Amino acid sequence: MVKAANLRGTTPGTPPSTSILVVGGGYVGMYTALRLQRKLKQELDSGRVEIVVITPDPYMTYQPFLPEAAAGNISPRHVVVPLRRVLKRCKILLGEATAIDHAKRTATVATLATAEEGTGPVEITYDELVIAPGSVSRTLPVPGLAEHGIGFKTVEEAIGLRNHVIEQMDIASSTRDPAIRDAALTFVFVGGGYAGVEALAELEDMARYTARYYHNIKPDDLKWILVEASNRILPEVGEEMGKYAIRELRARNIDVRLETRLDSCEDRVALLSDGSRFPTRTVVWTAGVKPAPLLAATDLPLNERGRLKCTAQLTVAGVDHAWAAGDAAAVPDVTSDEPGKETAPNAQHAVRQTKVLAENIVASLRGEPLKEYAHKYVGSVASLGLHKGVAHVYGRKLKGYPAWLMHRVYHLSRVPTFNRKARVLAEWTLSGLFKREIVSLGSLEHPRAEFELAAGGRRPGHGPDTPKGGSHDDSGGT
């Protein structure tokens, strides 16, 4: 009620009576800020409220499109949404929150400017906190993983992996050493969830097509291996559709290994728990995620898995003026009959939670009652490459082309802004009319390399005999 009085009583031109700090520019951060700026339009215009979004990147990445970006079906710039264009009434601060002291209502932030100034992180004060830093890759102490592994959570990693795969085909085509050729054409993916399966399926599709333009590489020369520690893949689409996905992948000569772990990838050799050894220059790690490290640097309550304890109203449990949703939040699932069950940390819940989250923040500021987040999981869709997919939605099971079409329609409807929807649809249409792009632009990762070489230096991460097109160091990473 105090906040409501502040909103009504402040006159234009005075400092904002309410400062809303949004930490994170992903699904939850962007959608929450977007809905807040719509619902608080008058307050923002009059200066009674300000919304500050802290994000390490100036864009939101629509992660379900990363596999298609890696395969070249979508341009990388159309997988991301520019925050400054979408959040016109918000203040965007590029930086990383390193700590939050909610008792004092302060957040410690390191920005590009603080690094240049040498002054160290700055403290930002706020009245309401929306904490949505998302998640990071969950890694294990596998020998060689840090040196040779490639992640698949960002658009940079997706495009880097595409360039890397094509570059390995170039190496295999030009080498005279059978061992180097075999390692270059062996691709190991660890993790049988959405990210791993879709990335592998799309890239295998792309590489199979690309092989036709090499005089000495056939599609069957490429070896694709999917390693999954559990006894199934794609658990979200159900057991039956998961088994179908395995059959589909194996029919494409993809080696799917269940109940198997990656024990080591030192010296560019993938050693699996079943005793198999695969010389490889490509190990892609997609074995799950964990909460962002920021959560451990706050005074907010966490559960045993490191996620914020939240209520069904999306408030942080036992704390005033703190809100959370998405990967960082452990939100009770009020639609479940199972006691203590939480909503799954996926995009379907995250996007829907932001609607309730924004409405509840506005209701809190105006002294109105809060709503509970209640959404029954409707199912999932997954792509297995061009014209192939699986889906389990509202109890109905689809596979093949219908599931692939549903996958595209669903995600096209979910990608933010009409601008992005139109551009993605146009690219899909053009890709159906023309041939795939098979060019590797790995040199973009080191744009100054050519000039440094001309100036008498050496290409970053390269020896003097590295061919011009090379863009990766000896680690096999991107």
From TrEMBL:
<dbReference type="InterPro" id="IPR036188">
    <property type="entry name" value="FAD/NAD-bd_sf"/>
</dbReference>
<dbReference type="InterPro" id="IPR023753">
    <property type="entry name" value="FAD/NAD-binding_dom"/>
</dbReference>
<keyword id="KW-0560">Oxidoreductase</keyword>
<keyword id="KW-0274">FAD</keyword>
<dbReference type="Pfam" id="PF07992">
    <property type="entry name" value="Pyr_redox_2"/>
</dbReference>
<keyword id="KW-0520">NAD</keyword>
<feature type="region of interest" description="Disordered">
    <location>
        <begin position="452"/>
        <end position="478"/>
    </location>
</feature>
<dbReference type="InterPro" id="IPR045024">
    <property type="entry name" value="NDH-2"/>
</dbReference>
<keyword id="KW-0285">Flavoprotein</keyword>
<comment type="similarity">
    <text>Belongs to the NADH dehydrogenase family.</text>
</comment>
<dbReference type="GO" id="GO:0003954">
    <property type="term" value="F:NADH dehydrogenase activity"/>
</dbReference>
<feature type="domain" description="FAD/NAD(P)-binding">
    <location>
        <begin position="19"/>
        <end position="353"/>
    </location>
</feature>
<protein>
    <submittedName>
        <fullName>FAD-dependent oxidoreductase</fullName>
    </submittedName>
</protein>
